[in-house]
Amino acid sequence: MKPQLLCAAVALLACMSPAPPAAADTQSHVPCGVLNQLRDSLDNDVSGGINGVRTVITSPYIAGGPQKRDAEANLALVSHGIHVLEDVNGAADVPGLAPLLVNLDQANQDMTQAVEALFQLTWGGFEYGSTISLAWPQPATWTVIDYADQKKNDVYALVNSLAPTCAP
Q1: Dihedral, CA atoms, 144, 47, 154, 162, nearest 10 degrees?
Q2: Which of 5, 24, 49, 66 has its CA at a distance of 20 to 30 angstroms from the CA of residue 121?
Q3: CA-CA distance, 160 to 162, in Å (whole number)?
Q4: Where do the domains of the chain lie?
Q5: Start-end of H helices in the chain
Q6: Beta bridge partners of 167
Q7: pTM of the model
């Protein structure tokens, strides 16, 4: 075969071959149901718990024991919510969510320590026995709670940014 003929045959085959596949969409599409699960846990567990902690430590209680119990119940709600978020992310692997959950979990641990430090065991003598003091939140307490709220909002921001491209 002559070189010109060979070049023409190669060119003809190149023109007749199917077009290369379009570049795949590199952005992953998170299922909308996963985003809804994340939002539900953020709304009901994490936000509810943080707001509950704020309410409990500023509410008038007659005794510290019930106040501590209620604060711990709300802290447990936040922790539960974070575990739900981690479980949902473990199954769906939402891009960018894992480091935000690590930050939220750390902020929750800090908030838990700060709130639990508000309650002190006091000795009332042999007549009264020991009791738990009422919470007296300090500015640092609010800073830690606000930080946990901010880390929760970071997760909300990611979830909301993925919503327009979620897969049905």
Answers
A1: 170
A2: 49
A3: 5
A4: 30-163
A5: 3-16, 32-41, 48-58, 64-92, 97-116, 125-128, 139-162
A6: 31
A7: 0.79
Class of domain 30-163: mainly alpha
Q: Look at residue 163 and give its three-state secondary structure.
A: helix
The length of the chain is 168
At 30-45, the pLDDT tens digits run 999 999 999 999 999 9
Alpha carbon separation from 42 to 19, 46, 56 (Å, rounded): 46, 5, 20
Tokens of 20: 């290369």
Q: Which two tokens stand for residue 50?
A: 């943080």
- Model confidence pLDDT, tens digit, residues 46-96: 999 999 999 999 999 988 899 999 999 999 999 999 999 999 999 889 999
Question: Which residues 6+ apart lie within 8 Å of 84 measured at CB?
Answer: 37, 41, 45
Among residues 46, 31, 35, which one has the least CA distance to residue 149? Answer: 46
Judged on CB neighbours under 10 Å (0-12, 13-18, 19+), 110 is middle
Residue 90, pLDDT score: 93
Q: Which tokens hold the place of 61?
A: 């209680």
Q: Distance between CA atoms of 159 and 23, rounded to whole angstroms?
A: 26
